[in-house]
Amino acid sequence: MSEDSKLRIENVTKLYGYGLLGLKKFKALDNISMDIDLTKPRIVVLAGETGSGKTTLLRIIMGMVKPNIGRVFYKGRDIHKLRGSEAKWYRREVQPIFQDPYETFNPLRKIDSYFYDTIRNVVGIKNRGEAEHRIDESLRFVGLSLDRVKGKYPHEFSGGELQRISIARALLTHPKMLLADEPVSMLDATLRVGILNILKNLKEKLNMVIIYVTHDLSTAYYIGDDISIMYRGTLVEYGPISKVYQEPRHPYTYALLESILEPDPSIRERYPAIKPSSIELKEFLIPGCRYANRCPYAKEICWHTLPPPTNVDGVVVRCWKYLDYKQS
Amino acid sequence: MPVDILTVNNLDGGYEVFVGKRKVFVHAVDNVSLTLHENEVLGIAGESGCGKSTLAKMIYGAIIPPLVVRSGDIYITTRNSANLKLNRLSIDEIRKRIWWLEISYIPQNSMNVLNPLKRIKDQFLNVFKYHDIEIDKENFMKHLREMLNVMGLPPEVINAYPHQLSGGMRQRVVIALSLLFNPRIVIADEPTTAVDVVTQRTILSLIKGWRENNKSSLILISHDMSVHAYMDDRIAIMYAGNIVEIGNVFEVFKEPLHPYTKALIDSLIRKGDRTIRKGLMGQPPDLINPPPGCRFHPRCPFAMDICRVKEPPTIFLDKDRYVKCWLYVNTR
């Protein structure tokens, strides 16, 4: 895998302030490293609870937030140092889809104006006929068309349609990578599947790499190929999704998968009991493994040193439990 | 034979709002009847904007304009077996006699309802004052500690301010607050939408444990079908202001009858499942101007001519299971 064909996240750490004036800092992301191969179309899931840092990491990849330590390389270029035409190139290559389709669009602006803006300013097509052809093409991919969208305002569409429009807009630049931040969490169950199927299609037909951020592990498995589980700013487990689901290595991944509620009343007696969590900030400030407080296997070392990434059968785990495994 | 403690008969209502100068009526609850048994969990499921929260507000008795009830009755059997017609009581009477003592409400987004300037214990003290209940300090602290313990909260919480607690803890404080006087009916409106999976499980199992100990009844409102699968005894499916189907939760999940329920259950993604699923096309109707006949007919794959003109009747399969759909008229 050469440098030119991957997204490389290198030791990324992001600090946020807390307390009255925000002078005290905690690590919202702690030393995250990850490689994503851009030549193979796949859906990489970033999963975790609220406050696990998954959205912050996505924003860093998007270039909206700068990390305090560490760098992000896209095809060998540091994305936080891109300027001018190079920054535009990155915008064409990587496109976002946001969580709340109702808030993505300005209610006073016509929907099609977003499309013309993107195609003129980011793609650089000035010819009207060519632009319309391109817009129609990407709208058709999500099951809409330019005629249906033309001259309409956001309130004339349902949430599911707005999310489709959002995806179509991102497709205009023919991106290599899509960054989707909880794209279905605001939608109703009956509409959710439609959007997920579109994402799946994008991967299969347009050979895209999609980073899908979610807290919903059932939809993650439905479309994902790889998964990285985050907990309080640390990446605890990263690997192929089927391996992680079949045999979760990290105690947190295990707890998380166990606590998913399934839409099936016949298995409800089988859920194990769980311990209520304590105050979040305290967990962020643990210098060692953030999960030590809740972990049933916590040892002395877990509290003061962060475990290094360990490769166990093709899955990267950060847990002291597996450290002997690597050395032997 | 289960005893009914709450009966809703042909309840019909919605919001009267002005659009410019024109007065429009948002018909959010359309001819809804249901009963709540003693010691059971009744779930109300449906998509956003189907009227489930409005129904909850009506049952709770919080009928404050623009919300209006046009017809129908809500009966409640109180602790001392008086039978009250809830929608005929004045709001002050409801406040003093019903809220907290008979029916409690766990609001949506409950982590943000605490007064940020008051310590947790003072917020609890306020509730006692509100109901003119005299309690000495020692008993109060004992009761408070007990209640917080039920919700799995450490005693330090008593003297904390809301901002010192995490979202999940604040939510548990609010739940403890609403369960303070052991009400017989608890209405929980999306109690876990704003929290993550692990916290959700914790909160639900705490509510479950409390309810089983107290033999109270719970009306659980949620759009999340997995929450219903975990909690409910009976489930009611709402679509555009109608209850389209009601029944035992096992039966409804195993054998949904109404086409909407079928589509809803088919679109659920289970853990470790990758088979391609189809969602439902289209969108829920506008409640200002609902479609004639069955409100689901524009999206229904089985729609017949009669569905487009006439509202389907309620077809009882047994005492606790009914479906509102023309497809089942002849199978009765």
TrEMBL record, chain A:
Keywords: ATP-binding, Nucleotide-binding, Transport. Residues 7-257 form the ABC transporter domain. Pfam families: ABC_tran (PF00005), oligo_HPY (PF08352). It comes from the Archaea. CDD domains: ABC_NikE_OppD_transporters. GO terms for molecular function: ATP binding. Gene3D superfamilies: P-loop containing nucleotide triphosphate hydrolases. This is ABC transporter ATP-binding protein.
